[in-house]
C-alpha cells in the first residue's frame, strides 16, 4: 500500500507549497499499487512506485517556479492552481472495478476547476510528457545495459543480454504516430542543446547516441545533482564527441605506435613472454589523452601503477622510455648493479620530458610491482600522497595518480576495495585517481561469469560514488571522449573515476599460451576480427582525413625507429637496473660515506624541551577541556622528565620530536595510532566538550620544526601498509611508520611484506626506510593478540647463517648495508629511541621491523635514563648483563640469551631463585642482521658457562630457528646452545590464562636450571 504521505515525501521538501497542498487535499487512508495501475494517474506506475518520478515532479516544479513557460501548459495550470490552494487536476474514472479498501483516484488528485487556465487539457498530454521524462531518465540510468560495448559483438559487458523494458518506447504506450510529436525537455537533460523541445523520434535518437552506442555510462547513483548534471552535459550535448582532423591524425599516429611496438616485439622475440597489448592497443592513446588533458589542467607529475599486460608498451609509448633500454631486457644480460633483477614486465621507471601536445614539462613514473596485480594500487597512492605533501599540493592540482587494472583482478582482489576506501580519507586522499580497466573479458582462462558475482567488473567503484564509463575499444574516438571527461572530472571534483575499456586479448594469457583450449568460440571470432588500427585507418581514409600512403608512412617510420633502437641495444653488455628506479632520490647517496652512521644521541636540553612540551596541556588549557585521565598521564610524564627518565611513549615522542627539530618529516599511521591501541601514546588530545577540537603536542614543539603527521587509518592492513610503503619511497629524509593494532594483524598485509618490503631492493634496486611497529609478546591474551610472527621476518632476512663476516670497525653498518631489512625486539625505551633515529642517520635506507611491547609500555622496570639517550650514546645491538654475574664471569654457570619482554620475566625468576651470580642474561636487541661479533665476545667472556637461548614463543616460532645456526657459526661448533621455551605448536598462543601461566612457569624453570 502506498500512503498519501509517502507521495509527499517523494515530491521532496523543497516543493513545500505543492507538497503541503497535496497532503491537505489527500485525506484518504491509502491507495494500493494495483489502484495506481488501474486508474490512469498521470505518472507511469513503475517509475512512480520506485521513487524515481519524484525527481520528475520536483524538477518540473522548480523549473516552473523560475519560468512558468518552461513546462507544458497542463503542468503550468496544475502548479498555478495548487500554489493558490485551489484544485488542479481530476483523473478520469477507471474502467476497472474498485478493490476492497481502494478509493477513486479523483479523491486522491482533485480536478481542475471550471474557471482555471488550462481547462480541457487532455490527460494523455500530461501522461505523455511525464512518459518522455521517464524515458530520458531511464536512458540515463539504464542505457549502459544495451550499449554496444563488446568489439567482438558476442558478449554483454554486464553479463546480461536482456533489454530493459523501460528503454522501449512502446513500454510507455507510445505509437509510431507519436514519434514526430514535440515534447518539452526537462532541465535534467542536455540533448536539446539550445532547443527546449524536440520530436520524440529525435529525443530517442539522441539518447541512443549518448547512452547506447559505444559508451555506457554509470553515474546516476552519484548522490550529487551537480555532479550528475556535469556528466550529463558532457555526454548529451550535441556535437560533444566531435574532434578535429588534426586530433584524428594524432590519434591514428599514437595507435600506430602502440600497434607497431607489439608487432616489432612479436617479430624479433617470438618465443619470449611479453604480455602484449594486442586487442587493446587503444590503451596507449587513452593514457596519453588522460595525461594531455591533465597536463593542460595544471598537473605536473603523474604516478602510475599497472599489471604486467601492456607494461612494455606503456613504458615505450606513454613514458617514452628509451627503446634501447627496453630491448636490452630481452638480451639475457647480467645486471651491472645491485639486485637480482626482475622480469621486464614488472619493472618501473621515472621520466621527465616535454609534453609536445601541451608544451609543458611532465614527470611520469610507473611503480615497479610483482604479479600480485592489484597490490601496487596502495603503493602508488602512497607515493602520490607523499609527492603532493612535499610539493605543498594540498588539493592534488599538480600531482595525480593513474591506476591500470585487469577486469578479473579489479573485481576479484580485495585490495582494490581497501584502496578505494582510502580515496576520501583526509590523511590518505590523493584527490582523485583515474582508474583504467583493460577489460579483456577473461581472466587467464576463466570466463567472467565464473569470476565475478557483480554485473560489471567495475562495480566496486560504486561504493565511493566514482562515475564509471564503459567504452568499446574499437571506437577510438569514443575512448578519447571518455578519457577527456575522466581527466576533467578528476580536475573538477577531485574524486576517483573509472574508464572501463571493453576489449579482447588477441593472444593467450601470454604469447606461449593456447587460448583455444578453453575459449574456442571467442578466439575463432578474434582471429576474424580486424585490429583497431586497421579499422580506424579505414575510417579516416573514408573520411578523407588521411590517405593510404600517409598511413603506410607512419607505420614504416615507427618501425625504423624500433630497428635503430635495437641496434643500439645490441651494443650493451649489462642491464643497468638503476635506469629503472621509479622515484630516484636525487643527491641522497652522493657525497656520503656509505659506511658512516650519523649520531643518534641528543643533547639533554633538547630532550628536556621535547619532554616538557609533550607533557604539557594545550597552551589555552583554561578553554581546552581535556579528559581527567589525560591530565594524570601528562602529570606523570612531567614527573619523569623532571627525574630525567623516560618510559616507552616518552622515548618514542623524543625520537620523533628530535627528528622534527632537525627538519625530518615524521608520519605515523595505522589503526588507532593517535591514542595508541594500549592507550599509551596520546599524540592527539581531544577537547571534551567541542567536537573535532584537537591539540597535537608534537606539532607544537618548535616554530620552525618539520611537520608531524599522525593519523588513524581505516581498518585495513594490506591497503594502508602498501600506502605507507609508497609514501616512504618518495623521500628518504622522512621517518614513515606503520603500526599494527596487534602484531598478528600484519598477516593480512603479507603480500606487501613479501613482494615489496622484503624483496624490493633485490628486485628493483628500490630502498625504503619504512618502519613497521608490531606489538608482540605472549601475555595470556590468546593466539590472535600475541605473536607478530617474528620467525617469518627472520626467515626472509637475507644474511647467510653459515657466514661470519670479516670483523672490522664498520662491521655493524656493513651488515646493515648488505641485508634486506632490520629485525629488532628492543627491550628499553632508550634503545627504541636510538633505533628510530638510526633510520635517518644511516647513509642508506632499510626497512625496520620492530617487535614493540604491550605490558612493557607501563612496566616499572622498562624505563631508561636520559644518560642513555644523550650525545655520545647509540643503539645497542645487544645489552649485556651488568649485574653481579658480569663482575665474575669465570664463575658464571649459565649464560642465557633472550630478546624482548621475556627478559623481565627471566630477571624476576633469577632474583626469586637468588641466582644473580650464577646466571648471566644477555639481551639480543637487533636479531637480524645477527650481531656475530658481539655474541662471540659475550660467549668468550663467559667461557665456562652453559649457553642457552630462552624465548617466550613456541620452539617452531620466534627467533630460535634463526639464531641456532648462527650461534653454531659464531662458535665454530665448539659449544652447544640449549633451548628454553615453549614446545612446538601450530597456534601462536593458548587462549587459556591458566595454561599460559603454566607454560611460562615451565619456560622459566628450564631457563633457570643450572647445569
From TrEMBL:
InterPro entries: 2-oxogl_dehyd_N, 2oxoglutarate_DH_E1, DH_E1, KGD_C_sf, ODO-1/KGD_C, THDP-binding, Transketolase-like_Pyr-bd. It comes from the Eukaryota. GO terms for cellular component: mitochondrion; oxoglutarate dehydrogenase complex. Keywords: Glycolysis, Magnesium, Metal-binding, Mitochondrion, Oxidoreductase, Thiamine pyrophosphate, Transit peptide. It is an enzyme of class 1 (oxidoreductase). Coiled coil: none annotated. Its cofactor is thiamine diphosphate; Mg(2+). Residues 646-859 form the Transketolase-like pyrimidine-binding domain. SUPFAM superfamilies: Thiamin diphosphate-binding fold (THDP-binding). It is found in: Mitochondrion. GO terms for molecular function: metal ion binding; oxoglutarate dehydrogenase (succinyl-transferring) activity; thiamine pyrophosphate binding. Belongs to the alpha-ketoglutarate dehydrogenase family. PANTHER family: 2-OXOADIPATE DEHYDROGENASE COMPLEX COMPONENT E1 (PTHR23152:SF4), 2-OXOGLUTARATE DEHYDROGENASE (PTHR23152). NCBIfam families: 2oxo_dh_E1, PRK09404.1, PRK12270.1. The 2-oxoglutarate dehydrogenase complex catalyzes the overall conversion of 2-oxoglutarate to succinyl-CoA and CO(2). It contains multiple copies of three enzymatic components: 2-oxoglutarate dehydrogenase (E1), dihydrolipoamide succinyltransferase (E2) and lipoamide dehydrogenase (E3). This is 2-oxoglutarate dehydrogenase, mitochondrial. The lineage of its organism: Eukaryota, Metazoa, Ecdysozoa, Arthropoda, Hexapoda.
Amino acid at each position: 500500500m502506498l500512503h498519501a504521505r509517502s507521495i509527499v515525501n517523494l515530491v521532496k521538501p523543497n516543493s513545500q507549497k505543492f507538497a503541503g497542498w497535496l497532503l491537505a487535499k489527500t485525506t484518504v487512508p491509502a491507495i494500493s499499487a494495483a489502484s495506481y495501475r488501474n486508474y490512469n494517474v498521470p505518472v507511469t506506475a513503475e517509475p512512480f512506485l520506485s521513487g524515481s518520478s519524484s525527481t520528475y515532479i520536483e524538477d518540473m516544479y522548480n523549473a516552473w517556479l523560475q519560468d512558468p513557460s518552461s513546462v507544458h501548459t497542463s503542468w503550468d495550470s496544475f502548479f498555478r492552481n495548487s500554489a493558490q490552494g485551489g484544485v488542479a487536476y481530476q483523473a478520469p474514472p477507471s474502467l476497472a472495478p474498485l478493490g476492497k479498501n481502494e478509493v477513486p483516484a479523483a479523491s486522491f488528485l482533485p480536478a481542475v476547476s471550471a474557471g482555471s487556465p488550462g481547462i480541457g487539457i487532455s490527460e494523455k498530454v500530461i501522461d505523455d510528457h511525464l512518459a518522455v521524462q521517464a524515458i530520458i531518465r531511464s536512458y540515463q540510468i539504464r542505457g549502459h545495459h544495451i550499449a554496444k560495448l563488446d568489439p567482438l559483438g558476442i558478449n554483454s559487458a554486464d553479463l546480461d543480454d536482456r533489454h530493459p523494458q523501460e528503454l522501449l518506447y512502446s513500454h510507455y504506450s507510445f505509437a509510431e504516430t507519436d514519434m514526430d510529436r514535440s515534447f518539452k525537455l526537462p532541465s535534467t537533460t542536455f540533448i536539446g542543446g539550445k532547443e527546449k523541445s524536440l520530436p520524440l523520434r529525435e529525443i530517442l535518437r539522441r539518447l541512443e547516441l549518448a547512452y547506447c552506442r559505444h559508451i555506457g555510462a554509470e553515474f546516476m547513483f552519484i548522490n550529487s545533482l551537480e555532479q550528475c548534471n556535469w556528466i550529463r552535459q558532457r555526454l548529451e550535448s550535441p556535437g560533444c564527441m566531435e574532434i578535429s582532423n588534426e586530433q584524428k591524425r594524432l590519434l591514428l599516429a599514437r595507435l600506430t605506435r602502440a600497434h607497431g611496438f607489439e608487432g616489432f616485439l612479436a617479430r624479433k622475440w617470438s618465443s619470449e613472454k611479453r604480455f602484449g597489448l594486442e586487442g587493446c592497443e587503444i590503451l596507449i592513446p587513452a593514457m596519453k589523452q588522460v595525461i594531455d588533458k591533465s597536463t593542460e589542467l595544471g598537473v605536473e607529475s603523474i604516478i602510475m601503477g599497472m599489471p604486467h599486460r601492456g607494461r612494455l608498451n606503456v613504458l615505450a609509448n606513454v613514458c617514452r622510455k628509451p627503446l634501447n633500454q627496453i630491448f636490452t631486457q630481452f638480451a639475457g644480460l647480467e645486471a651491472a648493479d645491485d639486485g637480482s633483477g626482475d622480469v621486464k614486465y614488472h619493472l618501473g621507471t621515472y621520466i621527465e620530458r616535454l609534453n609536445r601536445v601541451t608544451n609543458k614539462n611532465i614527470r611520469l613514473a610507473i611503480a615497479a610491482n610483482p604479479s600480485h596485480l592489484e597490490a601496487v594500487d596502495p603503493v602508488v597512492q602512497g607515493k602520490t600522497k607523499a609527492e603532493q605533501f612535499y610539493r605543498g599540493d594540498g588539493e592534488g592540482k599538480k600531482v595525480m595518480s593513474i591506476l591500470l587494472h585487469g577486469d578479473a583482478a579489479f573485481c576479484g582482489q580485495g585490495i582494490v576495495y581497501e584502496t578505494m576506501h582510502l580515496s576520501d580519507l583526509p590523511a590518505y586522499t590523493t584527490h582523485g585517481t583515474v582508474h583504467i580497466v583493460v577489460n579483456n573479458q577473461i581472466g587467464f582462462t576463466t570466463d567472467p561469469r565464473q569470476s565475478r558475482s557483480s554485473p560489471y567488473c567495475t562495480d566496486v567503484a560504486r561504493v565511493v560514488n566514482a562515475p564509471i564509463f564503459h567504452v568499446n575499444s574499437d571506437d577510438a574516438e569514443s575512448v578519447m571522449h571518455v578519457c577527456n571527461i575522466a581527466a576533467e572530472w578528476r580536475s573538477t571534483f577531485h574524486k576517483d573515476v573509472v574508464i572501463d575499456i571493453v576489449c579482447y586479448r588477441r593472444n593467450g594469457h601470454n604469447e606461449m599460451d593456447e587460448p583455444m583450449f578453453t575459449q574456442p568460440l571467442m578466439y575463432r571470432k578474434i582471429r576474424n576480427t580486424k585490429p583497431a588500427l586497421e579499422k580506424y585507418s579505414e575510417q579516416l581514409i573514408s573520411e578523407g582525413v588521411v590517405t593510404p600512403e600517409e598511413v603506410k608512412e607512419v607505420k614504416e617510420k615507427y618501425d625504423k625507429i624500433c630497428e635503430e633502437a635495437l641496434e643500439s641495444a645490441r651494443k650493451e653488455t649489462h642491464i643497468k637496473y638503476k635506469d629503472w628506479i621509479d622515484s630516484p632520490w636525487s643527491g641522497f647517496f652522493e657525497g656520503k660515506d656509505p659506511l658512516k652512521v650519523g649520531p643518534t644521541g641528543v643533547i639533554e636540553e633538547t630532550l628536556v624541551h621535547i619532554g616538557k612540551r609533550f607533557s604539557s596541556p594545550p597552551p589555552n588549557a583554561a578553554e581546552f577541556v581535556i579528559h581527567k585521565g589525560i591530565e594524570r598521564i601528562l602529570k606523570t610524564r612531567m614527573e619523569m622528565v623532571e627525574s630525567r627518565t623516560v618510559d616507552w611513549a616518552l622515548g618514542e615522542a623524543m625520537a620523533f620530536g628530535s627528528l622534527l627539530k632537525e627538519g625530518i618529516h615524521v608520519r605515523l599511521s595505522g589503526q588507532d595510532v593517535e591514542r595508541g591501541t594500549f592507550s599509551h601514546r596520546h599524540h592527539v588530545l581531544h577537547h571534551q566538550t567541542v567536537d573535532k577540537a584537537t591539540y597535537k603536542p608534537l606539532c607544537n614543539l618548535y616554530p620552525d620544526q618539520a611537520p608531524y603527521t599522525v593519523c588513524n587509518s581505516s581498518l585495513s592492513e594490506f591497503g594502508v601498509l602498501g600506502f605507507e610503503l609508497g609514501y616512504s619511497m618518495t623521500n628518504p629524509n622522512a621517518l614513515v611508520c606503520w603500526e599494527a593494532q596487534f602484531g598478528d594483524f600484519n598477516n593480512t598485509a603479507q603480500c606487501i611484506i613479501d613482494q615489496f618490503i622484503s624483496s624490493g631492493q633485490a628486485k628493483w634496486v628500490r630502498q625504503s626506510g619504512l618502519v613497521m611497529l608490531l606489538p608482540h609478546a605472549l601475555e595470556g591474551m590468546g593466539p590472535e593478540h600475541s605473536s607478530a610472527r617474528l620467525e617469518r621476518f627472520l626467515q626472509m632476512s637475507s644474511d647467510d647463517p653459515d657466514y661470519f663476516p670479516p670483523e672490522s670497525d664498520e662491521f655493524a653498518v656493513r651488515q646493515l648495508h648488505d641485508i634486506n631489512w632490520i629485525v629488532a625486539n628492543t627491550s628499553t625505551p632508550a634503545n627504541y629511541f636510538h633505533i628510530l633515529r638510526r633510520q635517518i642517520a644511516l647513509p642508506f635506507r632499510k626497512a625496520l621491523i620492530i617487535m614493540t611491547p604491550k605490558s612493557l609500555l607501563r612496566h616499572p622496570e622498562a624505563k631508561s635514563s636520559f644518560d642513555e639517550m644523550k650525545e655520545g650514546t647509540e643503539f645497542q645491538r645487544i645489552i649485556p648483563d651488568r649485574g653481579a654475574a658480569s663482575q665474575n664471569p669465570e664463575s658464571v654457570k649459565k649464560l642465557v640469551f633472550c630478546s624482548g619482554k621475556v627478559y623481565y620475566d627471566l630477571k624476576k625468576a633469577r632474583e626469586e631463585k637468588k641466582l644473580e651470580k650464577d646466571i648471566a642474561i644477555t639481551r639480543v636487541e637487533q636479531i637480524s642482521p645477527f650481531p656475530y661479533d658481539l655474541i662471540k665476545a659475550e660467549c668468550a667472556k663467559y667461557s665456562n658457562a652453559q649457553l642457552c637461548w630462552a624465548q617466550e614463543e613456541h620452539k617452531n616460532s620466534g627467533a630460535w630457528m634463526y639464531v641456532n645456526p648462527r650461534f653454531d657459526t659464531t662458535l665454530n661448533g665448539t659449544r652447544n646452545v640449549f633451548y628454553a621455551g615453549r614446545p612446538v605448536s601450530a597456534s601462536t598462543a593458548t587462549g587459556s590464562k591458566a595454561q599460559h601461566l603454566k607454560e611460562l612457569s615451565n619456560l622459566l624453570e628450564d631457563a633457570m636450571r643450572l647445569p
